[in-house]
Amino acid sequence: MQKSAPSTLLSVLIGLCVLGTGGAALADDVDGAGTVILPAPLSPTVLTATGPSEMPLSLLEAIRMGIENNLQIEIQRHAPLIAYQEHEAAWGSYDPELFFDFTYANIEDPTANALATTSGESVSLNEFESYTGEGGFRGLIPWLGASYEMALTGDRALSNLSFQSLSPEFNSELLFSVTVPLLRGLIWNQPWTKLKTTQIQQRSSKDEFRRDVMDVVRRTENGYWALIADDERVRVAQKSLETRTALLDQVEIQYQVGVVSKVEIAEAAAGVASGEFDLILAQNRYQTSNDNLIDLVLGSRLRAESRIQLVPTDRPDDYVNYDIDPEQAAAIAFRYRPELDIADRNIERLEINLKFNKNQRLPQLDAFGSYGNRGLAGRQRSGFDPCRLAPPPPAPPCSPPPPLDLGNFDDAFDDFFTGDAARQYTAGAIFSIPIGNISGRHNVSTAELQLHRAHTLKRRVEQDVILDIRKAARDIKSTQEGIRAAQREEQAAAEQLRAERFKLEYGESTPFDVLLREEVLVEAEQKLIAAFQSYRNSVTFLDWSQGTILRNRNISIEAAGRLR
């Protein structure tokens, strides 16, 4: 029976799961969308019972419970969520910042300036008091790296200067400004680089979680098959002990009728003792496998005082004979193995890091500009004499104008965004370059080396994938051949034992020879058990090495990733 690797593998895996539980059990565990439905948490009372408690467990149930309860999976569930929060936090660099500040100043300034004196004396004390407030918002523009700011400023000033006509004087200003990097900081600035790298890390953390879940599924299946194999070894050891006990009974009867000597009774009794020892070892090994599977599927729910016995319900004793095309299997692995996706994410991250470092090596050239309106309001200072500075005769006499009254503070904003507003424009550029730029050059070299190493690492991962596929294909083939050979060996050993026991009945053989034949049969049965276990493990390993172990078991990584 020859099949292609993907379709045959899926058939084998479904067959291994369904043979013991039936197709209806598999259907009941999968919803209409093809997603595995995780079970409800197991009651701790089952695990802490004082007496032994048997727990029937299918392979599919073991996988589901392993994903549900495994502590390593629970730890790794946090990684994608943390990476998501870090990526969202990186957007915070572009949050507009609302700012306010307020300043109060009271200044007394001695002056001998004739224009600034307040009483005509040679030295006067000028007084200045002001209240200044500023508010607005500023921030960064994504991708471009430009910064912007909008600021509204208001000022109230009191002065006794002789040439200062308004006191209080109200000044206002509304200013829009922007600065755009043209070389260093253009696109590959630090905030944008961090945003892109955290986005890549978020995707990479999902791939890492998928890899961890795949590993847990693989270990769970191997643990499940190991428990079945050790259970079969206990059965073989029990049957062997029963055979040896029957042989001892037979020899004792023959001794009573004088057919055999007492030495042959001792040989048969030694065989019974050896069988008892083998049974003790087999039972201990079975309990160890039971504990290992409990640890995989129940995790922290297991207690030191727990006494529970897992009873596997899937016991497929058949296998599908098929060939694996390593080239096709490798192509599937290159598409689905999370290690390759992780390597690609690492390369992508380092490529961005290289672009950033190359950008930081450039000179700084920033263009800036601003536009705004200014306003003025206030009332004329008491005692202000505009004629004080008038030229002396024969100039015509000075007639003081009526007092100024430009309104209150809010009047300073009346002309904003109108044609009567006082406007201001600024434009310019900033240029700088570090001499030598040692840090910039060496940072670029470091980034290039890291990127080259990442490409080499990906090739190493690809090589490992190919080796895994080749090994899996060889294991599938050898275990299939091993099962057939072990079956023939078991049949021959059973026939030889039957013949030897028949000869013993007629006095043509000895108990020692029968025990030798029985040991050969036990060894053949152990080989057959090991062959089936290796075959099941090789099927799991092939699916794991192709990266399809979750897909073929209808396991939703989104459902598995939810915190418990």
Structural commentary:
The protein has 564 residues and is α+β, with helices and mostly antiparallel strands. The chain folds into two domains: 5-69 and 195-352 and 445-560, Outer membrane efflux proteins (OEP), CATH 1.20.1600.10; 99-184 and 372-438, no CATH class. Helix content is 54%, strand content 18%. Strands 2-3-4-5-7-8 form a six-stranded antiparallel β-sheet, with no helix packed on it. Strands 1-6 form a two-stranded parallel ribbon. A hairpin with a 6-residue loop joins strand 4 (147-159) and strand 5 (166-181). Helix 4 (59-69) packs across helix 6 (190-256), helix 4 packs across helix 7 and helix 9 runs antiparallel to helix 10 (438-505). The model is unreliable at 1-51 (pLDDT under 50).
How do you describe this structure in short?
The protein is of the alpha+beta class. The chain has helices spanning 5-21, 23-28, 44-47, 59-69, 71-90, 190-256, 262-298, 326-336, 338-360, 438-505, 511-546, 557-560, and strands spanning 53-57, 97-111, 124-140, 147-159, 166-181, 308-312, 364-380, 422-432.
What percent of residues are in strands? 15-25%
Number of domains: 2
Q: Which strand order do you get reading across the main beta sheet?
A: 2-3-4-5-7-8
Roughly how much helix do the residues carry, as a percent range? 40-55%
What would you call the quaternary organization?
single chain
Give the overall pLDDT as a whole number. Answer: 83
- The overall strand count is 8
Reading off the top of the CATH hierarchy, the class of the largest domain is best stated as Mainly Alpha
**Class computed from helices, strands and strand pairing:** alpha+beta
First-last Cα distance: 44 Å
Main pleated sheet: 6 strands, antiparallel
- Please report the number of helical segments: 12
- Kindly identify the CATH topology of the largest domain: Outer membrane efflux proteins (OEP)
CATH-level-2 architecture of the largest domain: Up-down Bundle
Q: Give the CATH superfamily of the largest domain.
A: Outer membrane efflux proteins (OEP)
* Residue runs with pLDDT of under 50 for 5 or more positions: 1-51
> So what's the overall shape?
rod-shaped
Rg value: 44 Å
